[in-house]
Amino acid sequence: MKQIIFMIFAGMLAASCMNKWDKEIVDNDLYSAQDIDDPTTTIQNIRMQYAAAIANSSYTPVTTNQIVEGIVTANDISGNIYQFIYIQPLNTDGTLDTTEGGIGVGIKGIAALYSLFPVGQRVRINLNGLYVGGYGQSPRIGMPYINTNGAMRLGPMTFEMMRTHIQKIGKPRPELVEAREVTGADLSANNIVKMTPMLVVIKNAEIKDAGWPYAHWEVGGDTYSEYHDIIINGAVMKQLLYTSTSATFAGDTIQPGKKTIYGLLNRYSSSYQLSLRSLNDIIELK
Question: Are residue 154 and residue 194 in the same domain, yes or no?
Fold first, then answer.
């Protein structure tokens, strides 16, 4: 009898421990910093402060506690964006500010960033110990690395740095994220700094290469990322839509007809570059 009572008690204790552990995982995110102070600056101020490094596609270390806050608008959910999330500034009511571009935040060591940083997740970042700069003049936060050509570039931060420098604030609120509607006229050289990177929507558009895959063009057995023209109200925006061969939809066929197209509007040097977050960003119009 004593043995039976002991076994029941042990089982209750084990269940209690499991429930407590489950609760701790939910309440205390093991992949998020816990003690980052309130923001001390804005994304726009950081972009201005490090404008030279961004424009030169170089990088500069941050050596003081400069804390920014933003909301996630794009991540790696389909593989078309790799090792980066993109955040944009918030309005005072917590909604997305669509008047200014955001900044890329590079993180490596995690295969599915979207599971930690879904669209609508507010994040707070202490830049002290990280680097701010650019790649193709697109602003980003991360750490330097050596590329295959032996050149130093600004790439993603390590998993360990993410855990101590990025704090998730509250639960994801995707309803606060609104894409900025853009037209062909908006995509001028004068606007490229202000409008990238930014979540946008293009209405009544067509993708010129209907019938072809988004990527996976085979050349000698190799596959390549691909650019496609987008037609907006009759105007052709050359090589605007970019798709990586790593995208889960890379081999899907582009459908003909008018569409509403959402995506991350970024830049590479003097050219705009629109990346779909997933194929859900394409809405076919009847």
Answer: no
